[in-house]
Amino acid sequence: MVDVLSQNEIDALLAALSSGEMDADELKKEDTQKKVRSYDFKRAVRFSKDHIRSLTRIHENFARYLTTYFSAQLRTFVQINVVQVEQLPYDEFIRSIPKMTVLNIFEAEPLEGRMVLEVHPNIAYAMLDRLLGGSGSAPSKITSLTEIETIIMERIFSRAFESLQEAWKTVLDISPRLEAMETNPQFMQIVSPNETIALISLSTKIGDTSGMINLCIPHVVLEPIMSKLSVHQWFTSEKKVRDPEEVDALKARVNKAELPIIAELGESRITISEFLGLSTGDVITLNKPVHNGLSIKVGDKVKFMGSPGTLKDRIAVQIDEIVSEGDEEFDE
Asked: Residues in domain Flagellar motor switch protein FliN-like C-terminal (predicted)?
């Protein structure tokens, strides 16, 4: 951003140049000098701010879907929110997570490559405890998962990926599939250590237990669809075309909807004393002449004009005119 000098600052600068306190040639040299900014090649910037915003928006939806899913499965209070979306080297991510954790390695066709959903042991074991009939508390000591516990965890997280699929529908129709589950980060090498990843951190609370769920997506996986992660793409994308069968079903339901139809002969205003004095044979004068058509309302809107009559000894109304869109009433 360019700094704008005030009038007082301009006067002070001119005074300093006039008095010799500042040298104009020195100022010119400073402007021509190249400004150097350090760049760490180990932390290459691959995702723009626009991409980060899009990933945040996608996974905020993912957090909401995941909250609903886990709340139903665990039958307890669950709260999941996006805390941060950042880019960093894969090696830094591996060093930042616990030595004993739950790593769900998965693929999501048509994207090529593997991704990781890392679940903090506190959260993973609280889920396991809740599924096995406990209160949902985390153990004091973290141990390796047994075969039965591994199968239970695989089942619950395999279905959790349906929430990820739903969240990504606005960008790409993906099919996440759990490939493997690991507990030791050192045995998991999905990309090279210096590869840039997008790390989506979700704060998770299950009952009284809190922890983090981290989604690691390598840049190489998202590279083919980076253009779809721009905000411009979101707003210019074509609207989804409805399935013809869905449209037909919608039309059928609309056609069955019931609407009240009222044919008004006219209106009249009388006082309460006149109303109380009415008797058999009295005539109430309406505000419309006999030759004027009847206003036929659908709901509370005038849609037709018609004439009164009979059909098979029953009172009927014949539609003579369709009221054009936007017309509410007709003049007398």
From this structure: 253-323
**What distance in Å separates the CA atoms of residue 259 and residue 8, rounded to the nearest whole number?**
74
Measure CA 234 to chain center.
Answer: 12
Q: How far is CA 45 from the centre of its chain?
A: 26
Rg of the Cα atoms in the chain: 36
DSSP 8-state class, residue 280: T
| Contact criterion met (CB below 8 Å) for 172 and 54 | no
Choose which CATH entry (1.10.10.10, 1.10.599.10, 3.40.50.300, 3.40.1550.10) describes domain 49-233.
3.40.1550.10
Measure the CA–CA gap between 253 and 248, rounded to whole angstroms.
9
Cβ(221)–Cβ(195) below 8 Å:
no
CA-wise closest residue to 320 among 263, 235, 244, 252: 263
Q: How far is CA 255 from CA 252, 302, 310, in A?
A: 5, 20, 27
Distance CA 316, CA 301 (A): 20
Of 164, 161, 165, 206, give the one whose Cα is nearest residue 71.
206
Long-range contacts of 300-309 (CB under 8 A, 24+ apart): 301/328, 302/327, 302/328, 302/329, 302/330, 305/330, 306/263, 308/263, 308/265
* pLDDT tens string 9-34: 777 777 777 776 666 666 666 555 55
List, for residues 283-325, the tens digit of each pLDDT value.
888 888 877 888 888 878 888 888 888 888 888 888 888 887 6
Instruction: Indicate the SS3 state at residue 78.
Output: strand
Instruction: Give yes or no for a cis peptide into 110 (omega within 30° of 0).
Output: yes
Domain 258-322 grouped into CATH 3.40.50.620 = no
- When pLDDT is averaged across residues 257-261 and rounded to a whole number, the result is 84
Q: Residue 158: helix, strand or coil by DSSP?
A: helix
